[in-house]
Amino acid sequence: MKQLYFLLCLLLVGCRSEPKVDYEAQKSATFTTAAVAGPHPLATRTAVEVLRRGGNAIDAAVAMQFAMAVVFPRAGNIGGGGFLVYRAADGATLSLDYRETAPAAASRDMYLDTAGNVTEGLSTRGHLAVGVPGTVAGIAAMHERLGTLPWAELLQPAIDFARDGYRLSESEIDRLKRYHADFNEFNETTPFSDSTLGAGAQVKQPDLAATLIRIQEAGRDGFYTGETADLIVAEMESGGGLITRDDLAAYAPAWKEPITKDYKGYRLLSMPPSSSGGVALAQMAEMVEPYPLGDYGFQSVRSVQVIAEAMRRAYADRAEYLGDAKFYPVPVDSLLDDAYLRQRMADFRFDTAGTSVTTVAGQVAMKENFETTHISIVDSLGNAVSITTTLNGNYGSKVMVDGGGFFLNNEMDDFSAKPGVPNMFGLVGKEANAIEPGKRMLSSMTPTIVEKEGELFMVIGAPGGSTIITAVLQTFLNVAEYGMELPEAVAAPRFHHQWLPDQILYETDALAGGVLDSLTELGYQFREVNSMAVIKAVRVLPDGSLQAAADPRNPDDDVEGY
Ligand code: GLY
């Protein structure tokens, strides 16, 4: 078997073209046949090359995720986790949860000191912050079920980028420099040394290339067993981390039914728990649906009030009820019940701001600086892929597996370390999201597909921590309610409310024309931020062509297609 792989690799190496080292990102374009939106031009081009060779959207997503693990190291990953929402051309839908899990040795109070207080940094930096990675198992599972091109072929572009090198983008160089001291704290060496970070720098990642070749040869076992697993466990042991060989061998992704929500002729399909994204998105859509937002106007006082109050209520429920449904009886049906959600807005009034003191989680029947990244793909047949994947923070825990060449996540911070104490996104949680061995930490990732009158309409998602869900909602509403073209809808300034803290975050250009002052007079509190969440989307236009839009908020965001 090994010899066969060796021959295959030789063949592939012989055929491979030199990796592209130059690129310009484009933020929007319309294509006749297939389209990809993602965080980096080398990754989007990798996906389009697969599509042109006859691969389907899943094949393209497989190759693109591995390519992102090389060329977009701050969030692209094999050491993290993610979610897929999939809609086949015939309308069948699926989702795949490949979120990280807590190691078997994790415990509820593992981040608390002897006085019961959260120890700063323990869940966000270093070896103890790392959850058992799910990415490689997830990619293997989606390929096994839905892919068509050979696995080894789809790994090859990523291997080429890692072994032969590629030019770092300016924005990645800036980011890498910012985290250099962190890398030095947790690693003897990384490929991102000062000498590789000059303008136009080329970087090679030979250890990562070797890891990817092991995955190319052995599939998921090339990561979860054998040499790669040994390297991860050795890294854990060197820094006081918890992940064992058994944790790695036991990791399993889970196929699930997407959350669905109808909205004025549209249907939103999104991610169920262990993400909060689908539930919260559906809740907010249901709460705002009775209001004529289009008539109120984009970011008018009334529109902002209705949407912000729906956000407040959804995030209050998130904190109380959402977590890994395998470990906690998340009352999804009750949370999505139309009558419950209409009643949730019953105390909303236009003449004053609501408050997160009186607005707490509803009573439902019980039967639950950041980096993530997203890709949206539609192939020539009309299959649609929406994938959000994450290391959590930029470069995750900042721990790179020695000899393995990849960063490990700091996803453990997405658990509630202590009830009511905010995580790095300011999100609070309770019992539903307490740490337990083998449990998935609650996510905000919201990979979403939208249908209109039963046909594919839009593929959408974003990185951005807690602001992902509200950014997906606003981008959808910008098109569905405010009549914007997709590029305009993606670029439009956004706001965000997450129940606690009781304030509206807004991007610098948002809430213009006196709206901010009017809302302040009503009693709302605000905090200005430079930018939040970075959308990548594809929309099917009435003539069947595909309009792809990436986000000007990330210089490297890119769309490609044909
Ligand atoms: N790590 C960010 C999220 O999953 O929401």
Provide an overview of this structure:
With 562 residues, the chain is α+β, with helices and mostly antiparallel strands. It folds into two domains: 2-10 and 41-255 and 391-433, no CATH class; 256-370 and 444-561, Gamma-glutamyltranspeptidase, small (S) subunit (Glutamine Phosphoribosylpyrophosphate, subunit 1, domain 1, 4-Layer Sandwich). It contains 19 helices and 19 strands. The strands form four sheets. The protein has a seven-stranded antiparallel sheet with strand order 1-18-17-13-12-9-8. A seven-stranded antiparallel sheet has the order 7-4-3-11-10-2-19, covered by helices on one side. The protein has a three-stranded mixed sheet with strand order 14-15-16, with helices on one face. The protein binds glycine (GLY). Glycine binds at residues 372, 390, 392, 411, 414, 443-445, 465. Glycine is lined by residues 372, 390, 392, 411, 414, 443-445, 465.
Which helices and strands appear, and what pairs or packs with what?
Blueprint: H1 2-15, E1 28-31, E2 35-38, H2 41-52, H3 57-71, E3 81-87, E4 93-98, H4 135-146, H5 151-164, E5 166-167, H6 170-178, H7 180-186, E6 202-203, H8 206-218, H9 221-224, H10 226-239, H11 245-250, E7 254-256, E8 259-263, E9 266-270, H12 277-288, H13 293-296, H14 301-321, H15 332-335, H16 338-344, E10 370-378, E11 384-393, E12 448-452, E13 455-461, H17 468-480, H18 486-491, E14 495-496, E15 504-507, H19 515-522, E16 526-529, E17 536-540, E18 546-549, E19 558-561
Parallel strand pairs: 15-16
Antiparallel strand pairs: 1-18, 2-10, 2-19, 3-4, 3-11, 4-7, 5-6, 8-9, 9-12, 10-11, 12-13, 13-17, 14-15, 17-18
The structure holds glycine (GLY).
